[in-house]
Amino acid sequence: MGGGGQLTEPEEPISGRAAGVYTWEEVQSHCNRNDQWLVINRKVYNITQWVKRHPGGIRVISHYAGEDATEAFTAFHPDLKFVQKFLKPLQIGELAATEPSHDRNKNATIIQDFHTLRAQVESEGLFQARPLFFCLHLGHILLLEALAWLIIWVWGTSWTLTFLSAVMLATTQLQAGWLQHDFGHLSVFKKSSWNHLLHKFVIGHLKGASANWWNHRHFQHHAKPNIFSKDPDVNMLHVFVVGATQPVEYGIKKIKYMPYHHQHKYFFLVGPPLLIPVYFNIQIIHTMISRRKWVDLAWSLSYYLRYLCCSIPMFGLFGSVVFISFIRILESHGFVWVTQMNHLPMDIDHEKNQDWLSMQLQATCNIKQSLFNDWFSGHLNFQIEHHLFPTMPRHNYHLVAPLVRALCEKHGIPYQVKTLQQGFADAFQSTQRWVQTFVHECC
Q1: Distance (Å, rounded) from C-alpha 266 to C-alpha 139?
Q2: Around Cβ 309, how many Cβ atoms within 10 Å?
Q3: Predicted model pTM
Q4: Selection from 175, 211, 217 nearest residue 60 by Cα
Q5: 46 pLDDT exceeds 60?
Q6: How many C-beta neighbours within 10 Å does residue 12 have?
Q7: Which of 104, 155, 254, 256 has the smallest count of CB within 10 Å of its CB?
Q8: Where the protein is mainly located, per its record (predicted)?
């Protein structure tokens, strides 16, 4: 579950009732940290030991323990036949013939219709990438970064030129972030190994971050978007209260780690400016060292070495630190607003065990298409399509969007599209709305 990392085969079949026949009640009872089963295409797998070797990380696959993981498994893996051989030793049986194919209250009709839509999209070749698109995207990143340095090398480090260079470098960081996102989702090359290699290059050498950190964090978000305790993007570390239920829970329990009635004010001081330069950087360093990801560390250090070689001759060591901190703050603002305008105003709640289409549509919305919006957001203005088909090349999102909208209309599922300005406004207004809920329950 989750496409990041390299696969290693299980050493031997996991012990269990060989060729057993199970009910959903039995499967659902195996959802503890030390006892995890899941179902894919009606086959039951014991993943208790395999989770430690899972390329996408322990957590993303554990989030489906005791559940039907068929839709998530299909969404994350571009080469299903290749991955199937790693599942075979884990199989302990299958669902009883009298059991439905899907657990709990998932809508079988929606699941079948979405399966049909995916088959149609595959037959139309919409999972096939255009390498030239991504080559040109990489080229424009490298060109923009070169121009940013050239400006201050040639014309000096005046305040105006330094600011202009910082804005350009922050833009390259944002655009490199969208490009590493493409490689991380295995949506560029047919061979996963090429995606992994380019992912490490872009996120490591061009951004100074860690592919392993990104894989383990981001695939959780896709597997269970906007779900407390499962999506790390809504784990606010008690700094903010989000969604319709968390402010109520904190208010009733009188939990006041922060002055939440002012969170819409300190959001601008803590959220957009500090997410990347402080929180993400701490996480990245901790991940690389604690998990001994020395290759990621080498790629990351190559970025900072390259940066210092360019900046120290003009700014000195202290000035270089200040300069990159400012670049990171600018980048962080862009990243937060682009990523959160699609998710923050949407439903944020505890696990509801929904089908793939319903779960993703409740947690995501789109921003209207335009040349600027497509470029600025890395085509994540088509957030709905990206979440439904995470391995699809981004240049095909606009082609599948009408099909997705039609399917949503058929089943009465809201398909939201906003302007860029409305997306930004809704993200901020959500923090204000949650404040009112918290104050009402607390007082």
Answers
A1: 38
A2: 10
A3: 0.92
A4: 217
A5: yes
A6: 8
A7: 254
A8: membrane
Among the listed residues 387, 287, 285, 399, the one whose alpha carbon sits nearest the alpha carbon of residue 339: 387
Tens digits of residue pLDDT in 160-213: 999 999 999 999 999 999 999 999 999 999 999 999 999 999 999 999 999 999
Q: Which own/partner pairs from 334-339 qualify as long-range (CB within 8 Å, at least 24 positions apart)?
A: 334/170, 334/171, 334/174, 335/174, 335/177, 335/275, 335/276, 336/271, 336/272, 336/275, 337/272, 337/424, 337/427, 338/174, 338/376, 338/377, 338/378, 338/380, 339/233, 339/380
- The span from the CA of 209 to the CA of 103, in Å, is 38
DSSP 8-state assignment for residue 44: E
Alpha carbon distance 212, 194 (integer Å): 16
Residue 36 β-bridge partners = 31
Of 308, 253, 296, nearest in space to 442 by CA: 253
Rounded Cα distance, 372 and 378, in Å: 10
Instruction: Tell me phi and psi for residue 341, to 5 degrees.
Output: -65, -20
Phi, psi of 43 (to 5 degrees): -90, 140
Q: Torsion angle of alpha carbons 328, 332, 338, 342, nearest 10°?
A: 150
H-state helical runs in 211-262: 211-223, 246-252
Q: In whole angstroms, give the CA distance from residue 324 to residue 343.
A: 28
Cβ pair 37, 66 in contact under 8 A:
yes
Helix crossing, 263-274 with 420-442: angle to 10°? 130
Tokens (6 digits) for 386: 């990206």
